[in-house]
Specification:
Order of helices and strands: EHEHHEHEHHEEEEEHEHEHHHHHEHEHH
Pfam families: Bac_luciferase
Protein name: FMN-dependent oxidoreductase (Nitrilotriacetate monooxygenase family)
Number of strands: 13
GO molecular function, one term: oxidoreductase activity, acting on paired donors, with incorporation or reduction of molecular oxygen
Strand order of the largest sheet: 1-2-3-4-9-10-11-13
Structural class: alpha/beta
CATH topology of the largest domain: TIM Barrel
Distance between the termini: 29 Å
Number of domains: 2
Keywords: Flavoprotein, FMN, Monooxygenase, Oxidoreductase
CATH architecture of the largest domain: Alpha-Beta Barrel
CATH class of the largest domain: Alpha Beta
Strand content: 5-15%
Largest sheet: 8 strands, parallel, barrel
Family: Belongs to the NtaA/SnaA/DszA monooxygenase family.
Shape: globular
Length: 449
């Protein structure tokens, strides 16, 4: 069988998709706070044989710009956020084969809590759960958890490494055959096959034993999106599905080869790498281009400034758009440093201006990601070109919801299936089976990476 493309839907449990202007699109749903909204999208994705839908999250609304939330609330810039775990479970219970993922931070939660939440969801969904592991990015998130400031970039990843060790250690507590359910003998489970963790480390102390047995896929699939130098090290150690952002195909090809080579050296060569993209599809090229023009017209300058201040953990309100950053100011950016580094590279200057940083990031616009525009044939051509040289699949982002997913499933999916590069049905009942990932043995995480 030819190599098969992985398709993942990039979801938000909030008033807009990851394109902040999506709520302004004429046909975008306004019932984002209703369980039926997410159940409908889940069924659309499952009809399209998507492998996975995962929910992004931040632990604060974007209020770093001017240290004020008024701009965010007024313009609806990711202003309302539901709990992603509960929202994801709502979608999962309305589907049977679609993988269901959720973002949880290693910076402000506790490992035992996260391990139990995801292990529970994995059991309830029959082995379809995934965890998108993130380190939180800004001071607003810190303030919501009673902290005076955010952890430094590399320190967040040091904490995250130990966090993952504790979570995996708890997930390993129950051996696969521990439960006996022997009513005649009165034996529920074999005590010799349930183990305490007894972790005592730099950041965490957690005893166990864990309260949730292993699921039929072993444990939830790990999604990771680290793209800074330290983030790549973390992703290569833990990531089973790596979510990336490539500005264009040439960069994608080089980055894909580099990451695959690195993963092979660490024993993680089966890991799938999937860049985020915006597909805009129409029955004709002209219809698709008109749709793109409407979508782009919805973005406002406020969107970019609010979201860029959020992810950089840096208030841009005090600087003129044409004012260059000093070396000290660039060093003070403690959020997503890969955006800062991209601006330096694209501008060709060691000290880019605010305007150059905005342009390089594409934040608040659909230019933040590659955009595939056209008919079903044209969009499939673009996806196939990337798939053959730069990725293992795609994180499909919605320019508006649920319409963008409806169009993609109705028009593009059949064309990808006709070409034999995307599945016509699910390979199995668990997410690991459908992604082609092996069921992890207890303790296998200690040997990988």
């Amino acid at each position: 069988m030819p190599r098969q493309m992985k398709l993942i839907a990039f979801m938000q449990a909030q008033n807009c998709s990851n394109y902040p202007a999506s709520w302004r699109y004429p046909s975008s749903g306004t019932d984002w706070h209703d369980s039926r909204y997410y159940q409908r999208i889940g069924r659309i994705l499952e009809d399209g044989k998507f492998h996975l839908a995962f929910f992004d999250d931040r632990l604060a609304i974007p209020d770093r710009f001017g240290d004020d939330f008024a701009l965010t609330i007024e313009h609806g810039i990711r202003a309302a956020k539901l709990d992603p775990m509960l929202t994801a479970l709502t979608m999962g219970l309305a589907t049977e084969r679609l993988g269901i993922g959720c973002t949880y931070s290693t910076t402000y939660y506790e490992p035992f809590h996260v391990a139990r939440s995801f292990a529970t969801m994995d059991l309830l969904l029959g082995g379809r759960a995934a965890w998108n592991v993130v380190t939180s990015v800004n001071n607003s998130e810190a303030a919501n958890f009673g902290r005076s400031e955010h952890l430094a970039h590399d320190l967040r990843y040091d904490r995250a490494d130990e966090f993952m060790e504790v979570v995996h250690g708890h997930w390993d507590s129950w051996e696969d055959d521990a439960i006996r359910n022997d009513k005649a003998e009165g034996l529920f489970a074999d005590p010799a096959k349930v183990h305490r963790l007894d972790h005592d480390g730099r950041f965490f102390k957690s005893r166990g034993p864990f309260t949730v047995p292993r699921s039929n896929q072993g444990h939830p699939v790990i999604i990771q999106a680290g793209q800074s130098g330290r983030g790549k090290t973390f992703a290569s150690r833990w990531g089973e599905l790596i979510f990336v952002i490539y500005p264009n195909l040439a960069v994608g090809q080089a980055s894909y080869r580099e990451m695959k080579d690195h993963l092979a050296k660490t024993g993680r060569e089966t890991t799938a790498i999937a860049p985020a993209v915006y597909p805009i599809v129409g029955e004709t090229q002209a219809m698709a281009e008109d749709k793109r023009a409407l979508i782009e017209s919805l973005a406002k300058p406020a969107d970019a400034m609010a979201l860029l201040s959020e992810v950089l953990n840096y208030d841009l309100s005090a600087k003129d758009p044409d004012e260059a950053f000093s070396a000290e100011e660039l060093e003070a950016i403690s959020g997503m440093q890969n955006i800062r580094d991209r601006a330096v590279k694209m501008s060709g200057k060691p000290n880019p201006t605010v305007a150059e940083l905005v342009r390089a990031s594409g934040r608040g616009t659909i230019r933040e990601l590659p955009v595939f525009v056209g008919t079903a044939t044209s969009v499939a051509d673009q996806m196939e070109e990337w798939f053959t040289t730069a990725c293992d699949g795609f994180v499909v982002s919605a320019t508006h919801s649920p319409g963008a997913y409806e169009d993609f499933v109705r028009l593009v999916v059949p064309e990808l299936q006709r070409r034999g590069i995307f599945q016509r049905d699910y390979a199995g009942s668990t997410l690991r089976e459908n992604l082609g990932l092996a069921r992890p043995e207890r303790g296998s995480w200690r040997r990988a990476g």
